[in-house]
Amino acid sequence: MKYLVFTTIFLSFYLSGCKDRPEKIYKLNAEQQYFMKIALGSEFGGGNEVLKKWGNDINIFVNHDSQTELLMELDQILSELNALSSTITFNIVPTIEEANFVIFLTDANTYGAYETSTQPYLDGNWGMVWIYWNGANEIYKGSMYVDIVRNTDLNCMKHLLREELTQGLGLLNDSYDYEASIFYQGWTCTPSYAEIDKAIISMQLGTKTMAGMDYDDLFNLFAQESI
Question: What single DSSP character describes residue 103?
């Protein structure tokens, strides 16, 4: 079971409704193919198939119950993300009022009281991300949580912290393609990025991909890069 729920507008599976897509995608390299699957798909159906990206820096407030090791892990994750990004920066802020993204390292009830729309999903989820975007498909705020009550394995908590935060960048799908990937559909506790994860995060946080791009826009972009 995976642990992702997001804003009320959901994305539909990226291959649906276009017969030539399976043939087209194999003209791209492995990293580009994986990006198309992760960035334009979703674990749940419905909605529009366009890229969602943050338009501003991500300022993070952490609501936690003395989770020293997870806070240290978060510092490491943010360092890695800042190194991979050429468009935005990731910052920790001291108050929730300064934040556009809130991380809860706590229990499901505490998170549900803050992000009330998640309440129907919390019983079966030990981690979750919820993001919001505007009409230009720019993400402007979000939140996530890692359940530290039901889940007591530190590596699994580190994995969920990394996975949910990374999917909160707009990379909303999971896949069975790469078992070492943070986006792997099956249950894992891998507390690090695979090399292919770093590649697609760089694409998501790069200057060439734009909020609102659809499948054909991205295919044309990647195909041009291959010439």
Answer: E
Helix (H, G, I), strand (E, B) or coil at 127: strand
CA distance 98 to 198: 28
* Cα→Cα distances 208→3, 15, 78, 128, 144, Å: 29, 22, 22, 28, 27
Q: Which residues of the chain have pLDDT under 70?
A: 1-26, 41-48, 226-227
Please count the CA atoms within 13 angstroms of the CA of 88 that sit on its side-chain side. Answer: 21
Indicate the DSSP class of residue 202: H
Fold of 21-225: Collagenase (Catalytic Domain) (3.40.390)
The pLDDT, as a whole number, for residue 22 is: 57
How many Cβ atoms sit within 10 Å of the Cβ of residue 7? Answer: 17
Are 107 and 63 a contacting pair, CB within 8 Å?
no
Cβ of 216: how many Cβ atoms within 10 Å? 11
- Residue 36: both structure tokens together: 């198309």
| Residue among 9, 31, 4 at smallest CA distance from 137 | 9
pLDDT of residue 19: 42
Pairing mode, strands 90-92 and 127-133: unpaired
Please report, for the chain, the start and end positions of each structural domain, with discontinuous segments joined by +: 21-225
Tell me the C-alpha to C-alpha distance, in Å, between residue 179 and each of 33, 37, 149. 16, 15, 26
